[in-house]
Amino acid sequence: MNKDQNTRCLGPSPPAIRDVGPYSTRNTAKGALLTEVGQVVAALARGMTVDQVRDAVLSGSLLTQRSVNSRKGIWDRIHYRYLTHRLDWVMSSLIDAFKNGAHAPEFISLLYLHYALRDRLTYDFVTEVLWHTGYQTRPLVARNAVLDLLDAKAPNHLEIARWRESSRVKLAGNMLSALRDFGVLEGIQRKFLVRPALPLSTAAHLLRILTAEGNRGRQVLEDSTWRLFLLSEQEVAATLANLAREGEIHFEKVGTTVVLQTPKHWEGVP
After folding, report:
1. Dihedral pair phi/psi, residue 259, rounded to 5°
2. Distances, alpha carbon 78 to alpha carbons 37, 81, 203, in Å
3. Eight-class DSSP state of 127
4. Helix residue ranges, H only, the chain
5. 252 bridge partner residues
6. Phi, psi of 253 (to 5 degrees)
7. Do the bridges between strand 250-254 and strand 191-193 make them parallel or antiparallel, or are there none, so unpaired?
8. pLDDT per residue over 77-135, tens digit each?
9. In this structure, are residues 252 and 216 in contact, taking their beta carbons and an 8 Å threshold?
């Protein structure tokens, strides 16, 4: 392996995990859905297929919401965030993380990672706004921070101009509530920025996503996805070093030289 691989590898198309499309208002309702996702993953852990879980949700035998439309809305969001790619290793990771408990950091952090990767606006808000804000002093994060981002992005995201002001405000409030549920913010009426937990299992999962997307060497170290957990580049290097001590990867960094070796089956679509 070259000491510093700075080119993306050619090969199979990367898995459809990351949202690279236009901004969406799909998250103006329903929130993080932590309870409902837990019920869905628990059903998968019992051996049900994705299609069987969908039928159970829509029939009302898995979720308790009375309205069929409400259950369908919940399923559509859960499926879009966590299951639409139908990648076995992703679903296995969700099931394994759930074994630690529905509220365990291993599970919540994995849900947060995929939630943010599947919603470009959330991703940009955390990696471009919150990451630069700094969490050390627990700064207040208000709804206007999201609205200001929308204004700044509007020239390059024409879809924003089509949204009603009420939709923007609702989206901003719901985004902050979801980030609170995922442990990025704390507080009910007033929300403060904190650093979410990043267990090694989730760090390995994040690294596998980056590897499957074609990132190698220093590209991995510098990728903005780590900013979802408010990590600096030095902290990313420390995380990779911890993973290396677990024996699953090989990682060395000396000055600007980066050596990173991951399992071969992580590359491309499994």
Report:
1. -120, 120
2. 7, 5, 22
3. I
4. 34-45, 50-59, 68-78, 88-98, 105-117, 120-124, 131-133, 143-153, 165-181, 200-212, 218-222, 233-246
5. 259
6. -140, 115
7. unpaired
8. 999 999 998 899 999 999 999 999 999 999 999 999 999 999 999 999 999 999 999 99
9. no
